[in-house]
Amino acid sequence: MRGCRKRRWAYFFFVACLFLELPACQSIPSPSFEEAQVGVSTFGEIWGYLISGEEQALTGELPLTDIGYFGAEVDHYGQLVNVPNPRDIPQFLGRIHLVVGCGSRALSHFVLMEESPVRNQLITDLIDQSKPFDGLQIDFELVPARDRGNFHSFLAELRTGLGNKRFTIALPARLETLDDDVYDYASIEPLVDRILVMAYDEHWATSEPGPIASMDWCESVAKYSLKTIGSEKLIMGLPFYGRTWGSSNLFRAFYFSGIERLKQAHKVTEVRREQGIPTFTYEVPVTVTVYYEDDYSLSVRMEMYRTLGVQSIGFWALGQESPTLWNLLKLKND
């Protein structure tokens, strides 16, 4: 135990030297992520995202200040649907936020057009449906680039209409400022009370295999976010989930000639018919690569964020985590 404590204090001393630019930091090497110790991380705000229908994932013992209640969305007609009821989680005594998503570029363009009746009605409904909640969070992840101005004015109207309620937004991770970015942090920051940076899906379902959120990538995202958003409004998002990738993608369509090549390559000798339609099966070896999060990786990431000056974190999503993870978290007020 003492050896662990010595390494931990050396790490904290190194970080202090780094920020103070003291010469002593040159003589103390930074520990690798593999050498970092699991410990209790303290934050001022800890958010957990709860999917409607999975309320059993929430217990009264979790160190959470805020719940992002997920499931409300904009349907094909631009109308707000599937709004959860905050009364379904009476055991939670913190703040509950209505989270609203919009799932396509075409639909986002449709509902964001300025002065359109659909947009005006959606804004009215969002404000009205937010009344039993402590706040509203917008999670529009597919806004077309040409709708940047419309999206920002949409946020400004909601900010005005919500009054004193907390208004937050979930934004994709950025490493630098992009030209004409719909999700430009600096432009959106004045319009909202909090920005959750979704620092995950660095690798996704159709990408090459890799971490959902590598440590170096997360560090770069956090530094850029702190610089452009500021620690008061920033919430760094962390993933609870993992992903799998297979070495072969077998879901394809073929010409007749391609089917014949498959039969030859895999030495298919039996072709059956179902109501006259030919069908056959063959087996191929598949290597599956898995990346996921556990208590250790989440603890290292949380401590990295805390050391950088992040005050608030948020997890996607409750029910997907290791149950012992909560032993590694503490609220600052507690």
Using brief descriptors, characterize the structure shown:
15 strands, disordered N terminus, 334 residues, 8-stranded parallel barrel, alpha/beta, TIM Barrel, two-stranded parallel ribbon, 3 domains
Low-confidence stretches: 1-30
Kindly report the spatial arrangement of strands forming the biggest sheet: 2-3-5-6-7-8-9-14
CATH second-level architecture of the largest domain: Alpha-Beta Barrel
Instruction: Report the sheet with the most strands, covering strand number, pairing sense and barrel closure.
Output: 8 strands, parallel, barrel
CATH fold-type name of the largest domain: TIM Barrel
Beta fraction of the residues?
A: 15-25%
User: What is the tally of helical segments?
Assistant: 8
Verbal overview:
- The protein is α/β, with parallel strands linked by helices and 334 residues long.
- The chain has 3 domains: 37 residues, no CATH class; 241 residues, Alpha-Beta Barrel (TIM Barrel); 32 residues, no CATH class.
- It contains 8 helices and 15 strands.
- The strands form 4 sheets. The chain has an 8-stranded parallel β-barrel with strand order 2-3-5-6-7-8-9-14, surrounded by 5 helices. A two-stranded parallel sheet has the order 1-15. A two-stranded antiparallel sheet has the order 10-13.
- Helix 6 links the parallel strand 8 and strand 9.
- Helix 3 packs parallel to helix 4 and helix 6 runs parallel beside helix 8.
Present the secondary structure layout:
Blueprint lengths: L1 H19 L20 E3 L1 E7 L14 E9 L5 E2 L13 E8 L2 H8 L4 H13 L5 E6 L7 H15 L3 E7 L12 H4 L5 E5 L16 H14 L5 E6 L3 E4 L9 H10 L6 E3 L2 E3 L8 E4 L3 H14 L3 E5 L12 E3 L3
Parallel strand pairs: 1-15, 2-3, 2-14, 3-5, 5-6, 6-7, 7-8, 8-9, 9-14
Antiparallel strand pairs: 3-4, 10-13, 11-12
Helix pairs in contact: 3-4, 6-8
